[in-house]
Amino acid sequence: MRHGFILIDKPVGPTSHDIVQTVRNVLHESKAGHLGTLDPAASGLMVVAVGAKALKVIEFFNHLTKEYEATVTFGAVSSTYDREGSIEKYPIKPGVPEPDHIAVRRMIEERFVGRISQTPPAHSAVHVDGQRAYDLARQGIEVQMPKREVEISACDIVSYTYPSLVLRVACGSGTYIRSLAHDLGQLLRVGGYLEALRRTKVGNWDVKQAVKPDAAVWSDVIPLKDILKDFVSVELDTEQAAAISLGKKIPLIIQPNTVAWSEGLPIAILVPSSDNPETAHARKVL
User: Fold this and answer.
1) Phi, psi of 45 (to 5 degrees)
2) Which of 33-42, 44-53, 137-146 has the lowest mean pLDDT?
3) Is the pTM here over 0.70, yes or no?
4) % of the chain beyond a pLDDT of 90
5) CA separation for the pair 53, 224 (Å, rounded)
6) Who contacts 119 (Cβ-Cβ below 8 Å, separation ≥6)?
7) Which candidate in 9, 18, 39, 135 is catalytic?
8) Which end of the chain is more exposed for a tag (fewer CB within 10 A), N or C?
């Protein structure tokens, strides 16, 4: 059985689940999952883990920085903060000018770079009182969305001609670009919503390296040994490797989540034993 990650260029329309199912079908591999959801209205890079062993290491990649190209439309607002919602013209007050390039850039630099507080859209997958926020919103239930701290490391203007603004955004997990578009429009007093979104990077992986979901082949899969090659690692001898594979502890001082290698392949994710830090055991056997 082969295991690894494949880079998929998701089109607008399908859900992330649809994309994973397509990859399962074309590769004839039932074990698959993704590193991060993209809304149906968004396109771009999805990293899909294929094979049981690859699924075991997804958690170690959940906090990679992501990069997006986002198109914001000013002068209107949306119930979902994007083009999928009910869109209404924003009641711009008399005397409020169309924001120029300098005003937009200054607002972004002052309010949308670094560690910021953000309120997710009511139509989102955030859990509220044990339910998905979008399920409550669809029932007409008013949802008080909790604020969250998110990290935006860069937010640069690619192009701007009012009312259309294109941004390149690099951010941490949990950031809602829809909320950024909405909040930017509110602060500029002209309203705004997310017209289009394309994810261009996940960590060091680029959408330029990705393939269409229905064109995926096994030769496109990045092997697990390449996925894990930059992790803290330790080489085990044959006896140690056999013990680890059987769930036994071995005398070894390591850092948490060290990748154990044997004969050129990763065989386990090791952690120090809680009862004796001078021994190690497998948190996950690969």
Assistant:
1) -75, 125
2) 137-146
3) yes
4) 83
5) 8
6) 145, 146, 147, 148, 179, 183
7) 39
8) N
Backbone angles phi, psi at 167, to 5 degrees: -120, 150
Question: With bands split at pLDDT 50, 70 and 90, how would you rate the model's confidence at 123?
Answer: low
- Residue 48 or residue 126, greater confidence: 48
* Whole-number pLDDT of residue 128: 45
Among this protein's residues, is 39 annotated catalytic? Answer: yes
Distance separating alpha carbons of residues 50 and 52, to the nearest angstrom: 7
- Indicate the residue type of 217: V
Instruction: Calculate mean pLDDT across residues 142-149.
Output: 72
Kindly report the number of other CB atoms within 10 A of residue 206's CB atom. 13
Burial 99-126 (b: 16+ CB within 10 A, else e): beeeebeeebeeebbeebebbbbbbbeb
Q: Which uninterrupted H or E stretch holds 243?
A: helix 238-245
φ, ψ (nearest 5 deg) of residue 101: -60, -40
| Structure tokens belonging to residue 16 | 């992330």
Residue 169 near residue 154 (C-beta atoms within 8 A): yes
**Across all residues in the chain, what is the average pLDDT?**
91
pLDDT tens column, 9-39: 999 999 999 999 999 999 999 999 999 888 8
Q: What's the N-to-C CA distance of the chain in angstroms?
A: 12
The Cα-based distances of 177 to 38, 67, 148, 182, 205 in angstroms read: 11, 10, 13, 9, 20
Burial of 238 (0-12, 13-18, 19+ CB in 10 A): exposed
